[in-house]
Amino acid sequence: MPTRELPDSAPGKYVPYHPNPYYSPEPLPITPKLDISDQTRDLVADAAYQIGRVDGISSTVDFSAVLYTSLIRLEAVESARIEGAEVEYQDVEAYHTQHPSGETETTIEKDLREALNYEHALTSGLERIESGDSITLSLIKELHSVLLDGVRNDGDVVGDFRDHMVHLTSPQSGHRPFVPPAPEALDGLMQSLESYIQMGGQYHPLIDAAIIHYFFETVHPFSDGNGRLGRLLIILYLVSQGYLESPYIYPSAYFNRHKIEYVEHMRAVSDEGTWDEWLAFFIEGLRSQAETSYDRTQQLRDLQERYEQEYSSSTATDTFARKLLQYPYFKTPDLVEYLDVSRRTAYKIVDKLEADGLIEEVTGKQRGKEYKAVDVFDILG
C-alpha cells in the first residue's frame, strides 16, 4: 500500500502495513544535531529559573515532606486522568488515610488503582535514582510492572516490551490512527534510548527530557501504560541529571489541559521534523508547572503563618490547627495518635475546627467520618 513521503527533516519514515502504515523512527541520538532557536533557548532559561525558584522555596518550608508527597499525588492523579481515569486528589488522600500502614487493598476501583500505582512507581523510581541507580531498560520494565499491577487488560504484556502491533487513536476525529514501530524493532530502538540517557544527552537537560519523552511515546514500547510511564520518566530523568532536587513539578497537569496539542506536536515531529515547536510546547509545560508549584508553596507557607498566629496557644486544638498542613486529611481517632490525647479530646478538637471552618467532613456518614483541611485542599486543588 502507498505510504506518505516525509521530508528529510522527519526523524523516521512510514512503512507499509495493513490497514495503516506504521512509523519507524530513527534511533537516538538525532542526526544532524538540532538547531535550537533563540526563542526556545530563552524559554529554557526562564523554565530553569522557575524550577530553581520552586526548588529553593520548597527546601525552606517546615512542611516540605508533606509538599513532596502532595505534589507526587497530584501528578499521579493528573497522569491517570490523561488516560481517561475518573479520579480526584481527595480520593488518593482518603485511601492513604484509610490504609496508614501501606497495605494494599485488593478491591480498589480501577481508576483509583491507576493513580496509586503511578504514585508507587514514581516514588520507587525516585528512591532508586537517589540511591545511585541509573535509568536503564531493566528499571523501566520494573516500573511498568508497578504501573499495571492490578489494572492490566487481557492480552497486555506486563514488565516487558509488547509482542504485537498497536494502533493509537487520534484525539482529533477523522484522523487516521498512529501506528508505532513493529515489535521486532523495539529492542534496538529502546537500547538507543538507554544509551542516550546514559550518556547524559546532548543538550540542556530540559531539551533532552523533551527528546526522550517524544522518542519513548513514539516507539510506544509497551502494550499499555506508555503515556503514564513516559511522563514519569520526565521527572526521573531530570532528577537523575541533578537538575531537579525533588519532584516539585508535575508536567501531567499541563499535558492534560492541552491534551490535543500534546499529541499533535509529537505527531508533527514524526511527520515534519518540527522539533522546535515541540520543544517550546514541552518546556513551556515544565515552566508553567514550576511557576504554579512555587505559587502554591508560597500560599501554603502564608497559610501556615496564619494558623500559627491565629492558633498560637498551647491547647490541643491550637496545636492541631498548626499541624493541619502536616495532616490535611484524617479521621478523628487519628488525632489520638498524632497528639497523644484522649478520644474525647480528639472529638472536641474536631468540633472546634469544624466550627471555625478550617476542616469539613467529606463522607456524609454518621460513622467513620473523614475530614479534610479546607484551605489546604483549596490551594492544592
Automatic annotation (TrEMBL):
Q: Which residues form the Fido domain?
A: 135-284
In terms of superkingdom, the source organism counts as Archaea
Record's Gene3D superfamilies? Fido-like domain, Winged helix-like DNA-binding domain superfamily/Winged helix DNA-binding domain
Q: Which InterPro entries match?
A: Fic/DOC_N, Fido, Fido-like_dom_sf, Fido_containing, SoFic-like, Tscrpt_reg_TrmB_N, WH-like_DNA-bd_sf, WH_DNA-bd_sf
List where the protein spans the membrane.
none
Pfam families, sorted: Fic, Fic_N, TrmB
Q: What is this protein called?
A: Cell filamentation protein Fic
- Name the species this protein comes from: Haloprofundus marisrubri
